[in-house]
Design brief:
The structure is a single chain. The chain is an alpha/beta fold. The strands form two sheets. A five-stranded mixed β-sheet has the order 4-3-5-6-7, with helices on one face. Helix 1 runs antiparallel to helix 2. The radius of gyration is 19 Å and the shape is globular. The C terminus is likely disordered.
Length: 191
């Protein structure tokens, strides 16, 4: 998780789209963050480093992206994943056995297989509906519904869901929602 810079909210959307989340590179003075292609970083000792030890955990390029998208969305923190499946897998780990998730019936095949073949074995329950119709989302609600997952455009049929309507249906039942390639309203279940 990467926190945004406070000054990123002092400019208009166009300026944020280009500059938010970035500071000039201290080594070269480059205005835009360089693309760091290294996977490991030098360490003075075990766990003693300059903030980066391995690129899969943290990377300056990804941090700039996370800050930029968070600032554009009006958020204070951002997460970026190398793949949509990595993101969905991480989100699903917020839930526990017995939780019910409403999912678009035309999501990416890998998402369906993750839910149907793996996560259902761990007690997560899924209902698949045509999310183009917000009423179908509302009608699929159960007492144990904790989230709504929508993909738009869908893969492979390229169906479009009105994200505002889908989010209203999800929030109207008290469930957080994950919309398309960005998440909105996801919060860990209370303990």
């Amino acid at each position: 998780m990467t926190k945004t810079f406070e000054h990123d909210f002092e400019t208009g959307f166009g300026t944020r789209a280009i500059h938010a989340g970035q500071r000039p590179d201290p080594t070269t003075g480059a205005i835009m963050v360089p693309i760091y292609q290294t996977s490991t970083y030098v360490q003075e000792g075990l766990g003693v480093h300059k903030g980066y030890e391995y690129a899969r955990g943290k990377n300056p390029t990804r941090e700039a992206l996370e800050r930029n998208v968070a600032a554009l969305e009006g958020g204070r923190y951002g997460f970026a994943f190398a793949s949509g499946m990595g993101c969905i897998d991480s989100i699903m780990k917020l839930f526990k056995a017995g939780d019910h998730i409403i999912c678009g019936e035309n999501v990416y095949g890998g998402t369906f297989r993750l839910f149907d073949k793996l996560l259902s074995r761990f007690g997560l329950e899924f209902s698949y509906v045509d999310t183009r119709d917000a009423q179908r989302i509302a009608d699929a609600r159960r007492t144990n519904t904790v989230a709504v997952l929508v993909e738009t455009p869908t893969n492979p049929l390229m169906r479009l869901t009105d994200l505002r309507e889908a989010a209203e249906a999800a929030h109207g039942m008290g469930a957080p929602s994950s919309m398309g390639r960005t998440s909105s309203g996801i919060r860990p279940p209370s303990t």
